[in-house]
């Protein structure tokens, strides 16, 4: 039945949705608070409230805004007079500054705030818009004070928030925030605030604030409208306004240092959206740039306009050292000179227009954070069409130049192990700059990505020297016969405690190889695995670089052992005298331990080194050198599902990386036989291999078979290695065996997921009287077990999961023991809900969920069009016909023919007795109603059914039969 509103009621409803007329701003349009610590001996800060006033409709109010009260967050306040008023945008707006100083009592977090008593009138998204001037304007900034921050300052916003938007076009604003300390900035949306009713120093969200997308119909491209802010660049965009008028919104800039939030600043801003055919201009994308300090940067900026209008290109950013009002700041206020320029910026040009960004960088501009430069293009349409803008952010990373012409040469010291480095004087030397020296073994080529500062991976810091130094002698643990690569970087510190600076690009690499005079270990292999009688064979070379007659004979090797891969507590286990004869058996030792030092190769790895002695002129044995230590290979195992994961490592002076290692397996226990099952290509230690039972090396027989959780398997690994030094690389490949290790796989096979069915109501077959006599409802579930070659068929039970709504996370309802494959979910007030079932194995492992089945309700609610509330017990109340189904709530309103509300109720049932809101019997006649019926459906937010109709009240002894 179609509901027709009476004329009086229709006029009333239309009047309620009429929109107010939009007026222009009359006073404050935007504002924020910034701070700067101005003393290193006291906690004294300069605090500035920057306000943007409308100088057209609000000129008188702007002129009278001579002072505001600033709350400093420590319980004190001060009335601060205006110290600057600059007119911008053709004198249509002004930038007003209120600055004072304040000394805080001690470290802590402080929230500074300002209240402007009245916002301007006509702000659409602060309803009612004709009363928005009754809402106070409130902004705040929070700072963290501690001794380590020194002269920290909040970021400043250099782009005034005074641009216009157009209906149907994407509007963007970039505050061009700059942090002089180089702190990281992050952006997030907020809600405009007003003062608390009890204090102008306390802010709260404006309760009536509405997200701008409420006034959008679609995005510029026809999609869903959005209102977002880029958390990195700070570009705030509304895509797209759908209604002309005046809007307010706010965002917060967070200030981070070394992962710690040290402050946040809020900007509350306003835009005017117009309905105009003008299209916004376009600025061409600009790629980010990396430049060494001292580089002259010249970057063209090009803009066009779809309407062919002339355009103006302007730039904002700390590199210009210019404030939001366009006036030059004090020298070094934001950065040290030289400052950037935008050649042809601010000029009206025929499009395509071009301006040139020019900046002569220097050493003082080096810092870890990039410099953000925001370019804005503004079109110049014919009057009175409002101008539109577009933005493009350009990031510049200024890095310290590399140290030039690094060289390395051997030099003489007391033990003959030294390398002297020299380099050119550094171009960015300063008292706060140092040079860090890095070293690594080997001279392989390094990967140096463009504009990445510091040294590549693999280098270790060995020293720091003054930035004026040009030489350094390295004597730190140099090994003969090893090649060393060196790189240098300059490190810049921030004297103000900020994070400006960082490190320079890397110098060139200098390489040098020291001559070899000591023996070299070539093998540490486990022969026998046992807790008390283990055995390890150790082999080494004679001193490669030692010629007959170089030193006095006889010579002596002293073999030492330590426990563990990285053990350093060495004990001499063998002393071998030699004359270095090529035929002497003096380069091998089989370590079997002894009664005081057993060799437990089952539990431990062992590490070995050799001391080499010669006979001095006075006849005493004198140590010449000590070899680099080498450990045995240590094997470990981790059970997996019908698999065993092996991992192994060794601590050796040679490299086992990039080689083929052999894996051996025994199915008969630690005494073998062992079969080679895989040749594994390894990369970096620790190395790994997963045994699934297969055998890909069949020359010694194929032992492939699935691993069982009821069996144990034993393994050993043979590694291959090679010295990376060119003098020693010919000694390879160096082969070593690990100890023998036995392990048992796990079994984590799960059952397959069942297949679920749920009996559901056939809504089309239900009569109006269906379900009337049922006080509770039941959903019948049945399922069949899943099958598959990789599933465990041994099922112990099933778990039933249930969720009342489609979007709910389903929780365990109950469980039933196998082989039961059905369940009746009874006692329900509605059949709506979702189910899935899982199978649980006898090992206690649960399958993945079955298919998810959702059941929905069949709603029914039918109202009559006449009732007789005459007290005869027949048809005395207005209630649903037949049996209403799955009703959770009914909101019911009755009107007379002139649109006046006579009766209203809400609840799970409807039974109107024909009386008005004040309990008076309504006379015989025709009445209109609206019933809003909510049902217990599957979707939590399913829309209610709106029923509009009429009903006839009959009295005077008449009854319906």
TrEMBL record:
PROSITE patterns: PKD. InterPro entries: Ig-like_fold, PKD_dom, PKD_dom_sf, T9SS_type_B. Residues 1-25 form the signal peptide. Keywords: Signal. It comes from the Bacteria. Residues 67-118 form the PKD domain. This is Gliding motility-associated C-terminal domain-containing protein. It comes from Spirosoma foliorum.
């Amino acid at each position: 039945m179609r509901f027709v509103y009476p004329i009086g009621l229709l006029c009333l409803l239309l009047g309620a949705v009429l929109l107010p007329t939009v007026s222009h701003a009359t006073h404050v349009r935007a504002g924020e608070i910034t701070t700067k610590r101005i003393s290193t001996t006291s906690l004294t800060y300069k605090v500035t409230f920057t306000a943007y006033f409308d100088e057209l409709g609000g000129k008188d109010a702007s002129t009278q805004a001579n002072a505001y009260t600033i709350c400093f967050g420590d319980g004190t306040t001060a009335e601060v007079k205006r110290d600057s008023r600059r007119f911008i945008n053709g004198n249509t707006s002004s930038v007003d500054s209120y600055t004072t100083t304040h000394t805080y009592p001690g470290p802590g977090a402080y929230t500074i705030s300002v209240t402007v008593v009245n916002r301007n009138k006509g702000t659409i998204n602060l309803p009612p818009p004709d009363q928005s001037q009754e809402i106070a304007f409130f902004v705040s900034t929070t700072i963290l004070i501690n001794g380590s921050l020194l002269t920290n300052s909040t970021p400043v916003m250099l782009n005034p928030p005074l641009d216009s938007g157009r209906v149907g076009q994407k509007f963007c604003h970039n505050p061009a925030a700059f942090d002089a300390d180089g702190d990281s900035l992050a952006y997030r949306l907020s809600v405009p605030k007003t003062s608390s009713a009890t204090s102008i120093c306390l802010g709260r969200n404006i309760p009536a604030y509405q997200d701008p997308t409420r006034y959008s119909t679609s995005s510029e491209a026809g999609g869903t409208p959005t209102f977002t802010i880029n958390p990195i660049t700070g570009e705030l965009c509304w895509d797209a306004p759908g209604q002309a008028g005046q809007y307010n919104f706010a965002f917060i800039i967070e200030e981070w240092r070394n992962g710690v939030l040290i402050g946040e600043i809020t900007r509350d801003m306003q835009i005017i959206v117009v309905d105009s055919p003008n299209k916004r201009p376009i600025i061409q994308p600009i790629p980010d740039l990396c430049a060494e300090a001292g580089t002259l940067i010249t970057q063209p900026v090009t803009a066009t306009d779809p309407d062919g209008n002339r355009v103006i290109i302007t730039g904002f950013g700390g590199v210009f050292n210019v404030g939001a009002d366009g006036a030059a700041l004090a020298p070094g206020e934001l950065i040290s000179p030289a400052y950037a320029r935008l050649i042809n910026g601010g000029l009206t040009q025929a499009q395509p227009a071009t301006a040139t960004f020019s900046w002569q960088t220097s050493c003082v501009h080096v810092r870890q954070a990039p410099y953000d430069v925001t370019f804005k293009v503004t079109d110049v349409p014919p009057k009175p069409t409002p101008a539109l803008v577009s933005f493009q952010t350009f990031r510049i990373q200024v890095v310290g130049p590399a140290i030039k012409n690094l060289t390395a040469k051997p030099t003489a010291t007391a033990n003959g192990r030294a390398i002297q480095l020299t380099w050119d004087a550094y171009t960015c030397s300063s008292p706060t700059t140092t040079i860090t020296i890095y070293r690594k073994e080997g001279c392989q080529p390094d990967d140096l990505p463009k504009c990445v500062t510091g040294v590549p991976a693999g280098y270790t810091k060995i020293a720091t020297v003054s930035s004026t130094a040009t030489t350094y002698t390295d004597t730190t643990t140099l090994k003969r016969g090893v090649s060393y690569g060196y790189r240098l970087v300059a490190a810049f510190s921030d004297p103000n405690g900020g994070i400006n600076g960082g490190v320079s690009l890397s110098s060139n690499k200098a390489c040098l190889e020291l001559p070899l005079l000591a023996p070299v270990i070539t093998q540490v292999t486990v022969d026998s695995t046992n807790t008390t009688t283990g055995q390890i064979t150790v082999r080494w070379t004679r001193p490669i670089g030692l010629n007959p007659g170089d030193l006095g004979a006889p010579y002596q090797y002293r073999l030492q052992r330590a426990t563990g891969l990285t053990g350093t507590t060495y004990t001499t286990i063998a002393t071998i005298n030699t004359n270095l004869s090529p035929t002497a058996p003096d380069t091998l030792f089989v370590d079997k331990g002894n009664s005081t030092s057993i060799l437990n190769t089952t539990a431990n790895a062992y590490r070995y080194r050799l001391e080499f002695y010669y006979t001095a002129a006075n006849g005493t044995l004198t140590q010449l050198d000590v070899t680099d230590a080498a450990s045995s290979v240590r094997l470990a195992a981790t059970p997996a599902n019908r698999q065993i994961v092996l991992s192994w490592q060794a601590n050796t002076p040679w490299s086992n990386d990039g080689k083929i290692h052999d894996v051996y397996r025994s199915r008969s226990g630690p005494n073998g036989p062992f079969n080679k099952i895989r040749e594994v290509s390894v990369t970096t230690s620790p190395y790994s291999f997963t045994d699934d039972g297969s055998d890909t090396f069949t020359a010694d027989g194929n032992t492939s078979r699935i691993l069982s959780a009821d069996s144990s398997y034993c393994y050993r690994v043979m590694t291959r290695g090679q010295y990376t030094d060119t003098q020693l690389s010919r000694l390879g490949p160096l082969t070593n065996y690990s100890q023998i290790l036995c392990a048992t796989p796990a079994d984590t096979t799960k059952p397959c997921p069942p297949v679920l069915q749920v009996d559901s109501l056939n809504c089309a077959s239900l009569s109006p009287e269906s379900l009337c006599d049922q006080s509770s409802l039941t959903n019948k579930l049945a399922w069949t077990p899943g099958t598959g070659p990789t599933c465990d068929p041994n099922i112990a039970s099933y778990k039933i999961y249930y969720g009342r709504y489609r979007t709910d996370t389903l929780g365990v309802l109950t469980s039933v023991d196998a082989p039961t494959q059905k369940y009746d979910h009874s006692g329900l007030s509605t059949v709506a809900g979702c189910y899935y079932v899982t199978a649980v194995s006898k090992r206690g492992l649960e399958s993945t969920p079955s298919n998810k089945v959702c059941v929905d309700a069949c709603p029914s609610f039918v109202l009559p069009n006449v009732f007789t509330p005459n007290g005869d017990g027949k048809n005395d109340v207005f209630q649903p016909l037949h049996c209403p189904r799955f009703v959770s709530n009914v909101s019911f309103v009755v009107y007379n023919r002139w649109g006046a509300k006579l009766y209203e109720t809400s609840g799970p049932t409807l039974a109107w007795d024909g009386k008005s809101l004040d309990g008076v019997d309504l006379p015989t006649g025709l009445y209109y109603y609206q019933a809003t019926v909510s049902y217990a459906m599957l979707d939590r937010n399913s829309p209610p059914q709106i029923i509009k109709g009429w009903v006839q009240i009959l009295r005077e002894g008449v009854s319906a039969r």
